[in-house]
Design brief:
The chain is an alpha+beta fold. It is built from five helices and four strands.
Amino acid sequence: MTRTANSLLHAKRMRQSATDAEAKLWRNLRAGRLAGYKFRRQQPIGRYIVDFVCFEQQLVVEVDGGQHVEAQLSDALRTEWLESEGFRVLRFWNDDVLLRTDLVLAEILRMLSTRRGQ
């Protein structure tokens, strides 16, 4: 199986086993529910699979749980690579998505309506 096929299969499995925070955020982002912006979830980009991406605005949204405390270096490398490819990256903790959803959505919307360099 090719690397691309493996990535697509892995992304499909990840969509089927979303965390509570990912599922909650997806309910608010899917089908253009956030000001008409279209998002994809568990999308392969290069060698990574990002939680959510709006290709139109080149914005990646990552939802991190406790395991990311130990993965700060790999998360930083991932963010650096995505940014080198022209993406902006927002990261939120699971608790923020679950307990402060309105604030998370407001920050995502702010980033969507602010183009790079403004």
